[in-house]
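From the shared-data thread, chain only:
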Amino acid sequence: MEYRASYDSLTKWLSAIVIIFLLGIGFMGFISFSKTAGMLYYQIGICIFSLLLLIGAWIFSISSYSLSEDYLTIHRPIGDVKISLDEIKEIRHLDKFNMLGTIRTFGSGGLFGYYGKFYIPKLGHVNMFCTQRIHQILIITKDEKKRIISPDDLGLYEKILVRAEN
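Structure, as tokens:
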């Protein structure tokens, strides 16, 4: 079954602001600099860098989650992440107090979601695959990997819990 992963308002605003900012930099570069060959290459370089930054952030963003008999799948444009239900040691719902002091170590903290590697004082190092700051579910596997997901429907939590116990 497929579970939606919609953006929260902060993600929508941050993404829109960053996109407008990067497009503005590219546009302003073309209208404000002189058209000498060196400056033209500089302007094109900035535009390409901005475009690659946006594409790079988008391809790792989370589009949805799905649950089969054996796997929880995290869908992303670049490739899915699968977590075997047999490997799940612990699963629990997180509240905002569990997330206090979160530090992004390598990932996105709002541009197309919250994903990548983070450090959370109460949990340690985790991999986040979230699109919102609510409905967060912590999954700890037998090899002690910690992952956090944020489906729109918390019914996914109950279904994972039931299937992981069997």
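The helical segments are 9-32, 37-59, 155-165.
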